[in-house]
Amino acid sequence: MNMNLGVVRHDWDKKEVEELFNLPFNDLLFKAQVVHRQHFDPNEVQVSTLLSIKTGACPEDCKYCPQSGHYNTGLEKEKLMQVEAVLTKAKQAKEKGSSRFCMGAAWKHPSDKDLPYVLEMVKGVKELGLETCMTLGMLRDDQAQELADAGLDYYNHNLDTSPDFYDKIITTRSYQDRLDTLQHVRDAGMKICSGGIIGMGERASDRIGLLVQLANLPQQPESVPINMLVKVKGTPLEDVEDVDPFDFIRCIAVARIMMPKSHVRLSAGRESMSDEMQALTFMAGANSIFYGECLLTTPNPEAHKDMQLFKRLGLRPEQRIEESDETQEAVLNQAIVKDQEAKNPMFYEASATSAGDSVQH
Q1: Which of 111, 206, 332, 348 has CA atoms 20 to 30 A from the CA of 82?
Q2: CA-wise closest residue to 308 among 335, 268, 277
Q3: Does 352 fall in a domain?
Q4: Crossing angle between the packed helical segments 25-39 and 14-21, to the nearest 10 degrees
Q5: Catalytic amino acids?
């Protein structure tokens, strides 16, 4: 296989990506790990916290999403959170070791009435020394510019799946709508967080198609969340067949090879993954996680479990370089010690260590 591994490319074709997926598992992971080490510290993981700032009653019909107003999932509908309540959550996230704070709202697009409050949230979280990320649905070019001017670092807008499978999952907005929003974000000077969801009943060719779309964007996303579907009762996908864990890990590895300088995020679905599966995803090139008890509206591994897994694997949180910000490693270390004393006295001393646009992020 004659590939120039580790080089950012925008001319991937489906045949060569299929060849990657078909490699023996160990060979694929080895290639992914080689690429990963060219651009990242293999033992650092970027840590983010995700907060739902407006839950439920979304007009979109995404078949995976409990926040869609089209399905009865028992999810309570909530109005947009107050700015101060969001900032309190952001402070708590920073104290627990997060370096990025992501805010998600169940909207088709932000309204002109709500956007000023969202801008205040961005400004307030930035003042805390955290990176900021938002997912608010589709954006006009002027809205993207306002968010950029407020200091938003990242905008999350997932492609979800391949163009061929897309209309089997969503009909209320087009694939081109999503690409247009990503372009508005780029034009405004912000970074992009964009990935997809594995396990929605798609074919292997659709996973290939998704990664080709992402890698061949004019500029590859800085963050690429690879979600494993969280099946929620009441959604059309509640009974879809589980994705094979090794197939999921292959997606992580191929994403790492195709987007060598991007953070590949192990995102939704982590609650159901064993420690061993998570360890393999890190070996395959995943180097970003959501941290904390809840990922918008679905469970996420409890924070102290993440701390323990980091310790067992010799991982540490990626540090954000900022003069006024204490190192994230020190913060997380303190949290581990507190957790050891309060929740798990048998845990040995630790001196070193987050939807489409809604549920999957």
Answers
A1: 332
A2: 335
A3: no
A4: 110
A5: 58, 62, 65, 102, 133, 193, 265
